[in-house]
Amino acid sequence: MRMKPVGERDPVAVGIAGLLVLALVGLGAYRADSLPFIGGGTAYSADFTESAGLADGDEVRIAGVKAGEVTGVSLDGNKVKVDFTVEDAWIGDSSTVGIAIKTLLGDKYLAVDPLGDAPQDPDSRITVSRTTAPYDVTQAFDGLGETIGEIDTAQLARSFETISATFKDSPPDVRGAAEGLSALSRTVSERDAQLVRLLKGSKQLTRTLADKKSSFETLLKDGNLLLAEIQARRDSIHLLLTGTRDLGTQLTGVVEDNNKQLKPTLDSLGRVTAVLVKNRRSLDKVLSLTGSYNRLIGNTLGSGRWFDNYVCGVVPRNYLPPQEPEVPGCMPPKQGGR
């Protein structure tokens, strides 16, 4: 049977068919994540009584191994609907899903326990009877702090003491229990202020940790980068350490090889030093006289190529002019050598 060319077909029918094809292609592109062999896994949903801090992008783990992620957390009536995807993992029709605590800073993840004989229908939502949510410790401390603040501990202590007095004639077991309650009430009453401060401090600590969550994460990431860099430079650090060790070995050998030549030289230097120390006073006197002598030589030769000098007592006194003053200690020698 010969097929009609497109040009001979009804243009209205061809246009409608083309629009349907384009709509299917657009829908496929929009829901590409849900398509087999293309999307990011099989999509499931579960009902919880509370979200417990779970958020989009949190991990989905099966037997402790990451198998997917949470894609949505929304309120559905009096329940919380959690959408998640799982890749390359089997989930049975009796599987249980729980919100678990990942870190002390409050991160959560979705823990799936794959149970059942038949696979879970992705279009059938997992009911609340098969889901669990953790109890938030921060909320517990906050609620306990508020409750302790509203309790009249003194009145509570008097109530327990009244109970103890009422059961004082009861059997030993009952009387012991009542006395224990009375002692407990007195302890709580005496430690009321300390307990309130402890709970307030715990509340402040949890808030501080929550506020510094990003800082802790950055610190851990930076520490991981540092360790990775040290790992990458391990060979270089090893070569540096081995090179330093070899250098120390070579220096030790050099010292040992030259010890015979250096030892006599050092001994002679020690003897010279000892002689100099022994004649220290003579050396000091020589140095002081040398200073005066050098100054005299400098004054004599300081006029260039001429000698600048002064000779005293060469001419007799009677040959000098009358106005020439007599210089004490500078007289000519007497006749006869005396």
Automatic annotation (TrEMBL):
Protein name per UniProt: ABC transporter substrate-binding protein
Origin superkingdom: Bacteria
One GO CC annotation: extracellular region
PANTHER family the record matches: INTERMEMBRANE PHOSPHOLIPID TRANSPORT SYSTEM BINDING PROTEIN MLAD-RELATED, MCE-FAMILY PROTEIN MCE3C
Domain Mce/MlaD: 41-114
